[in-house]
Amino acid sequence: MAEGSIPQFASGPRFTDRVALVTGAGSGLGRATAVRLAAEGAIVAALDIADAAAEQTATDIVAAGGHARAYRVDVSDPESVAESVDLAAEDLGRPVLLVNSAGVGGFSRTEEQSYEGWQRIIGVNLTGTFLMCKAVIPYLLDGGGVIVNIGSNAGIMGQPYSAAYSASKGGVIQLTRALQDEYLRKKIRIVCVAPGSMDTPLQSQFTFPEGVNPKAFAKVMSPIGSNPPENVAGVVAFVASDEGNYMHGAVVSVDGGLTI
Ligand SMILES: NC(=O)c1ccc[n+]([C@@H]2O[C@H](COP(=O)([O-])OP(=O)(O)OC[C@H]3O[C@@H](n4cnc5c(N)ncnc54)[C@H](O)[C@@H]3O)[C@@H](O)[C@H]2O)c1
Predict the structure, then answer these.
(1) Contact call for residues 123 and 131 (beta carbons, < 8 A)
(2) pLDDT, tens digit, for every residue of 7-62?
(3) Which domains does the chain show, CATH number per domain?
(4) Could you tell me the pTM of the whole model?
(5) Which of 75, 98, 103, 227 is the right S-S partner for 128, CB 3.0 to 4.6 Å?
């Protein structure tokens, strides 16, 4: 480039004809990500245990002129994961992008947290992310690709009354790093996007345990408020795009300053 000339940047859709699998695509961040990727040309597999919600996302994308198809998956069930991933690949082509957004949570005193409740949160958030990665990696090994795991500020900082959720999201961060180390030379990028508070159905379902002083939660609420999921979807799209090409094993906080 000649000295003093203006650099030219690529513009336009960044995912044209790329097959992207998005879990939790029926709601919140997963839905916003599916819509964003499709708007930038991706062929989207909208995966969710809530099949009607996943169908709605796919229908809305197609109505807007995009490409999408819905699949039911329970990310905590190895058979369901393997079946739906293979089916989506058969229908849509080789996946080159996986976004793991399916998640569950809730606040509880640890001495009152049931074993089943603990297993459910770990099973969906951590084991589910592992199972989806395991099922999609063979496709990514055949020419490269990207995985974006959705973490949380709760996986970085101490968050009260959410031991299972915090442990699951801390696990997602270390899973991201371990996988990246393993696949660094195999053309697979793996990044964790760690949101703070987002306005989604997940958050509106949370209730504080009875009798707990709400001030205990001040540290997990950004003083500048919460973020629309569409903004976080924009960050997911950036790290998943070729512009994120040198991001490997990174943990990208989008949390209104919670983890400064
Ligand atoms: N909302 C927040 O404040 C916030 C903050 C930090 C991180 N996160 C993370 O962002 C991600 C998306 O959360 P959200 O706020 O969009 O929640 P959401 O409840 O709006 O969406 C989660 C989706 O996951 C699906 N799901 C749940 N269990 C599943 C399973 N077993 N198999 C497949 N799909 C399943 C649900 O049906 C739902 O459609 C989650 O991983 C969550 O932990 C959310």
Answers:
(1) no
(2) 776 678 999 999 999 999 999 999 999 999 999 999 999 999 999 999 999 999 99
(3) 19-254 (3.40.50.720)
(4) 0.97
(5) 75
